[in-house]
Amino acid sequence: MNDFDFLTGTWDVANHRRTDFLDPDSAWEEFPGVSTATRHFDGGANFDEIAFPTKGTAGLTLRLYDPSRDEWSLYWSSSSTGRIFPPVTGRFTGGEGVFHGDDTHDGKDVRVRFVWSGITGEAARWEQAFSVDGGDTWLTNWVMELTRR
Questions:
Q1: Hey, which residues does 111 pair with through a beta bridge?
Q2: What whole-number distance in Å separates Cα of residue 30 and Cα of residue 71?
């Protein structure tokens, strides 16, 4: 519990995202974001909303801690789809949070991995990777570098 307390507050976010999440040769695009996160349930829940002003979209994440499993479930939603994506689940170990789940992208089944790392009082890094071979290989397709505002 309390693993996501660091995220509480407002952050400037430098986004680096592949133009095709499944193509290792696709170009990277960069765009800004602003994220505001709040703490709930005495640290057992976290909510953030991120705006991508140059994209005209936004996203939000609900994170819930299950003490019986010592595990977080992370639920992402995008204003461009209006739906909640299947959760990724996992935990923090040694200052790094790793979370996995199953989803589909462009009609293909994918294994999803989120990694939170480089966490300090003023900065953090989040990355997303997809695997189309059950987790044998991963393609990182989105990186967010957060700086506290």
A1: 102, 131
A2: 32
Q: Please, which residues have CB within 8 angstroms of residue 18's CB and are 6 or more apart in sequence? A: 26, 27, 28, 29, 139, 141, 142
Judge: domain 5-148, CATH 2.40.128.20.
yes
Asked if 62 and 49 count as a contact pair (C-beta separation under 8 A), the reply is no
3-state SS string over the chain? CCCCHHHCEEEEEEEEEECCCCCCCCCEEEEEEEEEEEEEHHHCEEEEEEEECCCCEEEEEEEEEECCCCEEEEEEEECCCCCECCCEEEEEECCEEEEEEEEEECCEEEEEEEEEECCCCCEEEEEEEEECCCCCCCEEEEEEEEEEC
In tens digits, what is the pLDDT along the chain, a chain of 149 residues? Answer: 899 999 999 999 999 999 999 999 999 999 999 999 999 999 999 999 999 999 999 999 999 999 999 999 999 999 999 999 999 999 999 999 999 999 999 999 999 999 999 999 999 999 999 999 999 999 999 999 999 99
